[in-house]
């Protein structure tokens, strides 16, 4: 299978990088083809230009490549920290520019955009890895865990990816080396469960 990994964290020594690296290595060991994007390192431009909102436009080469990779991947993995209950702006910009109508979703004929869209992505499985400094009980009670709805419902389900698995590692700021090693082992296991070894 071809699996797309999208990483959004500015610091190369971050635990997010360690997660993405372990996911990459596990997928490769399982025989999958990996397309890997470190959005900060690549200096991805997140601001959606006005002219790209129109449907049938010629996209910049970099965005066109992101679009075809996302459309054709068999699985999509995103890795990012919880920032204000949201993904980093660079990653929401990636969603804005890459999850395009006609490519990631489509409205049925006669629907001008007010109805329920049909998902178009080929991928049937997505995996989200998040890091956070908030205990689970407080995240759910006080904030309502917005990242769960953003990825599962607002992005992946809408674009046709019906199986989203999410893992949140917390609390990062007080975590020990042993805890982090155990979490990276969990990354390996969940990746292998979702994308098993190719026959
Ligand atoms: C701009 C910013 C906003 C943040 N907002 C939150 C937040 O809303 N909830 C939370 O639990 N942690 C928040 N954090 C903490 C990060 O989630 C935490 O630093 C990160 O998950 C640690 O992972 P890392 O070691 O890979 O950087 C925020 C951090 C930054 C820099």
TrEMBL record:
<dbReference type="GO" id="GO:0005829">
    <property type="term" value="C:cytosol"/>
</dbReference>
<dbReference type="InterPro" id="IPR029039">
    <property type="entry name" value="Flavoprotein-like_sf"/>
</dbReference>
<dbReference type="Pfam" id="PF02525">
    <property type="entry name" value="Flavodoxin_2"/>
</dbReference>
<feature type="domain" description="Flavodoxin-like fold">
    <location>
        <begin position="1"/>
        <end position="184"/>
    </location>
</feature>
<keyword id="KW-0560">Oxidoreductase</keyword>
<dbReference type="InterPro" id="IPR003680">
    <property type="entry name" value="Flavodoxin_fold"/>
</dbReference>
<dbReference type="InterPro" id="IPR051545">
    <property type="entry name" value="NAD(P)H_dehydrogenase_qn"/>
</dbReference>
<comment type="similarity">
    <text>Belongs to the NAD(P)H dehydrogenase (quinone) family.</text>
</comment>
<dbReference type="GO" id="GO:0003955">
    <property type="term" value="F:NAD(P)H dehydrogenase (quinone) activity"/>
</dbReference>
<protein>
    <submittedName>
        <fullName>Flavodoxin family protein</fullName>
    </submittedName>
</protein>
